[in-house]
């Protein structure tokens, strides 16, 4: 049983999703199944099969959430500090080719969201950054080829 590293915010988000799926989605899906069942012949009842499929998807996600929450290793970022990049660090990078600035927070797989500036600890970029310090240049193999980034800032927020 490997621990799943995550921030307190990530843990709270998973807990909220689990509660919603158990207390709102599950009863609604059960109602849909009962309603579809009342329409008669189940072998040709598309509504019934769709509701059963939705139930299967929801129950699978509930099991997945319960597993991740049970194995959660909550890391309190507010207690972290230093100038070496590790889990929870927010890192400012400059792309050496385009001079574009990017800010990424290194988080657990379950809470990674590129649109919100959060990358998974298992991503190629995060793996290249771990253990490095401000002023260092890292090279990352990206789908379009190798990319070089200069680390300009390491923060804990």
Global outline: elongated
- The ordered H/E elements are EHHEEEEHEE
Strand order of the largest sheet: 5-4-3-7-6
Largest sheet: 5 strands, mixed
| Distance N to C terminus | 29 Å
Strand content: 15-25%
- Which structural class best describes the helix and strand composition? alpha/beta
Oligomer category: single chain
Overall pLDDT level: 92
Overall helicity: 25-40%
**What gyration radius follows from the Cα positions, in whole Å?**
22 Å
Region (Disordered): 37-60
Organism: Bradyrhizobium quebecense
Keywords: DNA-binding, Elongation factor, Protein biosynthesis, Transcription, Transcription regulation
GO molecular function: DNA binding; RNA polymerase binding; translation elongation factor activity
Account of the protein in words:
With about 160 residues, the protein is an alpha/beta fold. It has three helices and seven strands, in the order βααββββαββ. Helix 1 runs antiparallel to helix 2. The model has no long low-confidence stretch (mean pLDDT about 90).
């Amino acid at each position: 049983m490997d621990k799943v590293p995550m921030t307190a915010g990530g843990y709270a988000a998973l807990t909220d999703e689990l509660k919603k799926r158990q207390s709102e989605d599950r009863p609604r899906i059960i109602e849909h199944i009962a309603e579809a069942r009342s329409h008669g012949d189940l072998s040709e009842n598309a509504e019934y099969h769709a509701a059963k499929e939705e139930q299967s998807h929801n129950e699978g996600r509930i099991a997945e959430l319960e597993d991740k929450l049970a194995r959660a290793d909550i890391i309190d970022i507010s207690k972290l500090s230093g100038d070496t990049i590790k889990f929870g660090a927010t890192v400012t990078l400059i792309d050496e080719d385009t001079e574009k600035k990017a800010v990424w927070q290194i988080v657990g797989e379950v809470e990674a969201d590129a649109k919100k500036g959060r990358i998974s600890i298992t991503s190629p970029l995060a793996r290249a950054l771990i253990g490095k310090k401000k002023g260092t240049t890292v090279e990352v193999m990206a789908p379009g080829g190798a990319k070089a980034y200069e680390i300009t800032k390491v923060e804990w927020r």
